[in-house]
UniProtKB/TrEMBL annotation:
Gene: galE
Domain NAD(P)-binding: 6-327
Protein name in UniProt: UDP-glucose 4-epimerase
Keywords on record: Carbohydrate metabolism, Isomerase, NAD
Pathway the protein contributes to: Carbohydrate metabolism; galactose metabolism
Enzyme category, top tier: isomerase
Cofactor: NAD(+)
Entry similarity comment: Belongs to the NAD(P)-dependent epimerase/dehydratase family.
UniProt-listed InterPro entries: NAD(P)-bd_dom, NAD(P)-bd_dom_sf, UDP_G4E
Record keyword NAD present: yes
Source taxonomy: Bacteria, Pseudomonadati, Bacteroidota, Flavobacteriia, Flavobacteriales
Entry EC number(s): 5.1.3.2
Subunit architecture: Homodimer.
Length: 342
């Protein structure tokens, strides 16, 4: 009998690709999404890829009563992958209470329900933002968690602490926090991809929207950093690799291979690429010349961040396989698909 998994925020960028990966491995998936930063059209994209329509419930996880009723209805959930959260750094600085309510109350309500479920398995969508500007590169899971630069980053740190504390007092509850570096790319079918609402907060959708003519030019925030070409360095991981990591992590929890009931893993490629390298690679992958200008530094940007992936490779048994070139090519294919749909 197939295992049943709840994916919160399952119509979002990483969530939708993970739903596809779960389907491909035989899991039964139920999606919760309030559509605040996603589109119902994504459900159609998932269905076209997998030939199977996942069960979907439009719900706001801040509604504690609705969360309780959901788990009464779905008492046979084997695992939860929790993506649902607000994630724009700049907006979190302007609206901190919105971020604390949305990102923490929803987590707490889910954990309160799962804590009563013996053998519950929980995967938390965390972020390398918890490290801030790390003292050493590449960044290992043992790197100190720095004071957060934004309320968004703080919700990821506090979220991990809440989960860790829950695991300490409930030995039957098992959880893994996955600290992503920079997810990019799209499904090779171009049926799903990153679909930012309004102005993109991330580099790659800004690049693709500029290349297709939606935006006049790309702004590169600073070229005077102490890096090889003066621009910020990040670890860009293909969303397809990231999605597979969630399936591997869920298998680990369900099969009880973990030594402790709470673990943390970095998910990245282990390679850092500068903003200018990403632009150059995009041009090589697509044959499109990209207009850009250098502007002043952006507040809150760290100089460089890329993962030490040894723990994920050895302990989790997962490794990123797709390249920056692959990811940018797929992101461009997706952007053109979006344009064609109007």
């Amino acid at each position: 009998m197939s295992k049943k998994v709840l994916v919160t925020g399952g119509l979002g960028f990483i969530g939708s690709h993970t739903v596809v990966a779960l389907h491909e491995q035989g899991f039964e998936v139920v999606i919760i999404d309030n559509l605040s930063n996603s589109s119902i059209d994504v459900l159609e994209g998932i269905t076209k890829i997998t030939n199977k329509k996942p069960e979907f419930e439009r719900m706001d996880l801040r509604d504690k009563t609705a969360v309780s009723k959901f788990f009464e209805k779905h008492s046979d959930i084997d695992g939860v992958i929790h993506f649902a959260a607000s994630k724009a750094v700049g907006e979190s600085v302007e609206k901190p209470l919105l971020y604390y309510e949305n990102n923490l109350s929803t987590l707490i309500y889910l954990l309160q329900e799962l804590s009563e479920n013996p053998g519950a398995n929980f995967i938390f969508s965390s972020s390398c933002t918890v490290y801030g500007q790390a003292d050493e590169l590449p960044i290992t899971e043992n790197a100190p968690v720095k004071k957060a630069e934004s309320p968004y980053g703080n919700t990821k740190q506090i979220g991990e602490e809440i989960i860790s504390d829950t695991c300490k007092v409930n030995s039957g509850f098992k959880a893994i926090s996955l600290r992503y570096f920079n997810p990019i790319g799209a499904h090779p079918s171009a049926q799903i991809g990153e679909l930012p609402i309004g102005t993109p907060q991330n580099l790659v959708p800004f690049i693709t929207q500029t290349a297709i003519g939606k935006r006049k030019e790309l702004s590169v925030f600073g070229d005077d950093y102490p890096t090889q070409d003066g621009t910020c360095v990040r670890d860009y991981i293909h969303v397809m690799d990231l999605a597979k990591a969630h399936v591997v992590a869920l298998d680990r929890l369900i099969s009880a291979k973990e030594k402790s009931n709470y673990e943390v893993f970095n998910l990245g490629t282990g390679t850092g690429n500068s903003v200018l390298e990403v632009i150059k690679t995009f041009e090589e992958a697509t044959g499109k010349k990209l207009p850009y200008k250098i502007v002043g530094r952006r507040e809150g940007d760290v100089i460089a961040a890329y993962a030490d992936t040894e723990k994920a490779n050895k302990v989790l048994g997962w490794k990123a396989e797709l390249s920056l070139f692959d990811a940018l090519q797929s992101a461009w294919k997706w952007e053109k698909s979006v344009q064609n749909r109007g």
